[in-house]
From TrEMBL:
Name of the protein described by the UniProt record: RimJ/RimL family protein N-acetyltransferase
Superkingdom of source: Bacteria
CDD domains: NAT_SF
One Pfam family from the record: Acetyltransf_3
Residue ranges of every copy of the N-acetyltransferase domain listed in the record: 28-183
PANTHER family: ACETYLTRANSFERASE, GNAT FAMILY, PUTATIVE (AFU_ORTHOLOGUE AFUA_3G00765)-RELATED-RELATED
Length: 187
């Protein structure tokens, strides 16, 4: 079974469920209640739109239990002082790895939470999650050529530019070593 929660120093990454995505899409006032977190004023962030939410919901619905953890993840800022747990971003995988063990990730952080290293931490958590599955050998990500901040997030997480991608993006890749406690062939 793939872990559906990952911790980083400041973030709790929670795998999206059908219930969370359904609430986010169709009952937005219940979404923060189900999530157990406050929402930023500009939710959803750029790069995570309604079409992405619908795609993730469709894939989770079609894939059943085996799809859990292979799509969207919510990045929740852990409570600090008087500040409540807050949704700060979204990231995840575009699906399970292919036969060669390659999976693609994407990420986005709400504007009011940018510039604090949270995107770097979010991507680090996704790399950690990929390693924990024991199934991923290589991760691919894309960043706009005109977005040096996003490129830096990937570089800080061990990704290297491997060439141009589509639509003005650069393609980044990195190898993934299975976590010591990853179950071989876990699914």
């Amino acid at each position: 079974m793939i872990p559906l929660i990952t911790h980083t120093p400041r973030l709790l990454l929670l795998a999206a469920s059908r219930a969370l995505l359904t609430a986010e899409l169709h009952k937005p006032r219940y979404f923060p209640v189900l999530l157990g977190a406050a929402l930023p004023t500009d939710w959803p962030p750029a790069g995570y739109d309604r079409a992405a939410m619908e795609f993730f919901l469709e894939r989770l619905t079609a894939g059943g239990r085996t799809a859990a953890g292979w799509y969207n993840w919510y990045a929740l800022r852990k409570p600090a002082g008087d500040a409540p747990r807050t949704l700060v971003g979204s990231g995840g995988f575009m699906g399970p790895p292919d036969a060669a063990g390659t999976a693609e990730i994407g990420y986005s952080v709400a504007a009011e939470w940018r510039g604090q290293g949270l995107a770097t931490e979010l991507v680090g958590g996704l790399v950690q999650q990929a390693a924990a599955t024991g199934l991923v050998r290589r991760l691919v990500a894309h960043a706009r050529a005109d977005n040096p901040a996003s490129q830096q997030v990937l570089r800080r997480n061990g990704f290297d530019v491997t060439g141009p991608g589509a639509d003005g993006h650069l393609r980044f890749e990195r190898a993934v070593e299975p976590a010591a406690d990853a179950a071989p062939g876990a699914a």
